[in-house]
Design brief:
The chain is α/β, with parallel strands linked by helices. 38% of the residues lie in helices and 20% in strands.
């Protein structure tokens, strides 16, 4: 059976207006099953526990059919080279877990989990690194805290992994990357042979105008028999 995982990325107060649009559309489609990829403190300026409207919105959509997933801590790289190349070589400024030490990476995980626990009283079972990129040493750290993590083409459950097709409709608000990702994802949505698809909805999709196409592809996938699932549904 074909499985479709809807993952809403960059869940942070910074994108509150765009998140409202995303939730409104999913509510109209009566879709409640999705993973919420939450960023505890976007750019170290937008802590989730300091915005009551944001907390209320997420609590409303945190149901028995949805889950929180840790999606970095700040979602920003502090590496000067990454920052300089941001917008030239994709959204490199968002690659948070490549240049930090393992000690710092683990601290950010603990800090993020703490904020989520205090705010929503749950502990995420999974981790998705910003831009799906992280250093080689991260896997052993993640195994201590989570049941799974994802990269762009693979969902890792430590004792096994699942190859998947990822549909991402934004290139980080970089025009050429945006258009390329939109085209590739729409083609992949029609012709993928993978049995598991990750549909990655980003607030940027609303900003750049690709959200309409993304929802059209979502409707098409559901019409063709794809079954909604969560990342944790595959845990054995």
């Amino acid at each position: 059976m074909k499985k479709l995982i809807i993952s809403i990325h960059d869940v942070t107060p910074y994108f509150l207006p765009e998140l409202k649009v995303i939730f409104q559309e999913l509510d109209q489609l009566k879709i409640k099953k999705y993973d919420l990829l939450i960023v505890p403190n976007w750019d170290k300026k937008y802590p989730i526990n300091q915005n009551k409207e944001f907390v209320k919105l997420i609590k409303k959509h945190l149901t028995r059919d949805s889950r929180l997933v840790l999606h970095g801590y700040s979602h920003q790289s502090e590496n000067k080279l990454h920052q300089k190349l941001n917008g030239i070589i994709g959204p490199s400024g968002a690659i948070e877990y490549v240049s930090v030490s393992e000690k710092e990476a683990e601290k950010r995980i603990n800090d993020g989990l703490k904020i989520i626990k205090e705010t929503f009283h749950v502990k995420p079972l999974g981790f998705v690194p910003p831009v799906w990129v992280m250093s080689m040493g991260m896997s052993k750290i993640l195994k201590k805290y989570f049941a799974y993590y994802t990269t762009y083409f693979t969902i890792h459950y430590f004792s096994f992994k699942i190859r998947s097709a990822t549909l991402c409709y934004t290139g980080g608000e970089i025009y050429l990357f945006d258009k390329l990702m939109l085209f590739l994802s729409s083609v992949r949505a029609r012709f993928t042979r993978n049995k598991v698809v990750q549909l990655a909805i980003h607030p940027d999709d609303v900003r750049i105008g690709s959200f309409e196409t993304e929802i059209k592809d979502l409707k098409s996938l559901l019409k063709r028999g794809w079954q909604l699932s969560l990342y944790e549904d595959f845990i054995k």
